Amino acid sequence: MNNKILPSVFGWMFIGLLLTFITGYFVSMNPNMLLNLFTTWGLLILLIVEIGLVVFLSARIHKMSPTTAKICFLLYSFVTGLSFSVYFVAFELNSLILVFLISAIVFAIFAVVGMSTKIDLTKLGTYLMMGLIAILLCMLINIFLNSSTFDLIISIIGVLIFIGYIAYDVQKIIRMNELSMLPEDNLAIYGALELYLDFINLFIYLLRLIGNARDN
Length: 216
Fold this sequence. Notes:
This protein has 8 helices and no strands. With 216 residues, the chain is mostly helical. The protein is globular and about 50 Å long. The termini are far apart.
């Protein structure tokens, strides 16, 4: 497979992750900003903006200029960083760094799988989506059950699903490039967004599994 697009994809993904983590860290250091963000209205606005940016970028990527696509991706990474600050408050910094490194290693392994496998992973996408919908429903149910065992199972399945998504999305990006489905600059941003979401979700589920929460 021709994977020449991937360095650009991974580069933009890294920039997005760096922006998210830096934003989350600095917001977590500002109590006034935290109080303003984590109100009912603040959380609702963040959620709407995040979903809106992802939908807009994914739906309009074919028609966007490369500059607009890059701005949207960076804006999404920044907004995600605002909500991500809660993890810097809830978990020890050493634990966050460790889980980030583990996530990066796991991501790298399964990105290589996606680049090198001869198996067509296209059909895997359907099962991954079904699994993702299932764990979202389970998380909703567990809000009422508040079961730690159920939460553990959900987190394990979440890790497995996003491991699968990493390999699937890497292969998909390579094939989109081979078929010239998007201009290279736009495909780099689209691919970066897909893999950024995979990494962030993998990180969150691993954090739920092995992260050390703060005592206060």
